[in-house]
Amino acid sequence: MKIGSGSYEFSLRQDQMAxxxxxxxxxxxxxxxxxxxxxxxxxxxxREARVTEITVYRHFKDHHELLRAFWSWTDAxxxxxxxxxxxxxxxxxxxxxxxxxxxxxxxxxxxLLTSEGRAMRMSxxxxxxxxxxxxxxxxxxxxxxxxxxxVAAVIQLLYSGYAWLSMRDHWGxxxxxx
Length: 178
Hints:
This protein is mainly α and 178 residues long. The chain has ten helices and no strands. The chain has two domains: 57 residues, Arc Repressor Mutant, subunit A, CATH 1.10.10; 98 residues, no CATH class.
């Protein structure tokens, strides 16, 4: 293949775009802090990522798109395997999820304790709720709709970063078995 061939250049460009995308998301992770962070501007994000502001806009057309991408990126960094889709995945994934929270404590605290983190979490609220309700379909069969909703809410809370934070801060517990 010639160096200047279209497919080689396309592949190289895709790799560069993926690396830039990762740098922008990693920069956002560095800028979000649980101690006073309010809003990250595209200008500050570009400076931290060492790209131009227009590059940030090319990758993320708006704040909502940036937050959704950051949520997925954060989940990957935390070891999350995505939203639970079954009772089996709820049980199998909880330990890796909590260990991921431990390993990325600062990022997790920022996701829980900042307004940006809240916006990020709220951007997937409907999807998260639907996944927990679906994962618990078998366990809640026969319950009234309001009771099914309550069961899903409690299980989602126990599976959440808030439960992890409370157990860690108030009880000194981590996701790792001792």
